[in-house]
Amino acid sequence: MLDRLPEVAQSEGGNWISLKVRGKGFGYLWQETETVGLKATIEEQIALVAERPEVFEVQFTAGRFGWVVVHLAKIDPEELFELVTEAWCLTAPKGLVDAHEAGR
Question: Could you name the domain of life of the organism this protein comes from (predicted)?
């Protein structure tokens, strides 16, 4: 799935795998708990958690971003990819996002 997004780098970070684009993090995978933390807007974080608290939970907020924890066993793979893509778009440089979207 991640190979569909340009310049994604994965690296071990102890108990998690970090997902980055050009050195900036947009997600973290915890295999032990079968969860992923993803960057989102604060508005989206609030909406996701309110709509489906069994799938999503608030991780933290930082500036204008609200990170959300996603329980992987409770989400459709295509919806997960949409959220990963949104997190990537919030993090990647605008030119890279524009080039990716133009190539879809």
Answer: Bacteria
Report field, pTM of the whole predicted structure over 0.85: yes
In angstroms, the CA 100 to CA 84 distance is 14
Report the SS3 class of residue 24.
Answer: strand
Which candidate, 20, 39, 19, 21, places its Cα nearest to that of 29?
Answer: 19
User: Does 104 have pLDDT greater than 80?
Assistant: no
Q: Tell me: the pLDDT tens digits for 50-89?
A: 999 999 999 999 999 999 999 999 999 999 999 999 999 9
Domain boundaries, the chain: 2-95
**Integer Cα distance of 56 and 95 in angstroms:** 30
Q: Which fold has domain 2-95?
A: Aspartate Aminotransferase, domain 1 (3.90.1150)
